[in-house]
Amino acid sequence: MPEVRLVGPNGEQVGIVSIHDALKLAQEADLDLVEVAATARPPVCKLMDYGKYKYESAMKAREARRNQAHTIIKEIKLRPKIDPHDYETKKGHVVRFLKAGDKVKVTIMFRGREQSRPELGFRLLQRLAEDVTELGFVESQPKQDGRNMIMVIGPHKKKAEAKAEKAAARSRRGDAPAREAGTAEPQE
User: What is the rounded CA–CA span in Å between residue 86 and residue 81?
Assistant: First the structure.
């Protein structure tokens, strides 16, 4: 590898130079000679501050991770013979999870003779899906898995949108009590 195609620090093409001349140019400019395309003929090298490049790429990756929303799958477990009040409570949990932008995995657990009546669980899951249609959609249809029947409901809103709405609501609530507190007269 006696020659390399050299790219300058600002992206300009220097041309094909010998490796010794490229190293000399790098030393004079107080930069690093970095090979960017080893398989090209001749190999492509660039003059850059490699430490600065690594730092900037790490900062970009950290910023991308910060802006990334993690979708969490929450799980709710039900039984086929559930009391109406218990059903409403579980449905409230599903609604809360969907409003927060999380997916919900709904599991119906069958025991004993209940296993011979999977249509009870199927109807219960369909009812739950209909009750939360404005917040979520059925991502995977109900399917029997041994003693359990499983269905996944996904939210219509993304996690980031739900967080932004929640923050806006919190700031609106935070302003109102502060104004009321300022108008109260001190008591002695």
Answer: 10
